[in-house]
Amino acid sequence: MCLALFVASDEPVHASAGWNGTAALSFHPLAAADAWVRNVLSKPYVMYVGSHTGCSCGFAFGLIEPRTDAEAEEEARGRQSVAALRELLETRLAGAREVQLLACWAGNEGSLPGPSQTVGLDYFGGDEFQFPERAVIMVRRA
Q1: Cβ distance 102 to 41 under 8 Å?
Q2: Displacement of CA 103 from its chain's centroid (Å)
Q3: Is the torsion defined by CA of 117, 123, 124, 130 positive or negative?
Q4: Each residue of 108-124: pLDDT tens digit?
Q5: Alpha helices in the chain, H assignment, sequence order
């Protein structure tokens, strides 16, 4: 199962050329199956956001103590993906009051969202990070 992250803003985010296996962040237009997201998020421009993994599963770090070189590499790439997402949000917030996010696991797309929460950019840092499932997250400038 994969995590899907959707970002909604007042300004368009241009789609990436596609995931190339090295980018920390990629943007994709909504697939027809993801049209339901427009009923949950209220901003006019909605995109699917992929991490370094191609899907959104890579937006996490600090959840396990790396024991192998591969786990340490994944940890570092997760931190890079979250940092790149934070940079995107900071850019989006320069001209807007709020950006909305929704993360859900594949198979739960049609489920009603859980509670919403409002956060600042500092939410995307610290010792560990992962998105709560089905929460609408409103990111606002400080």
Answers
A1: yes
A2: 7
A3: negative
A4: 666 667 778 999 999 99
A5: 69-93
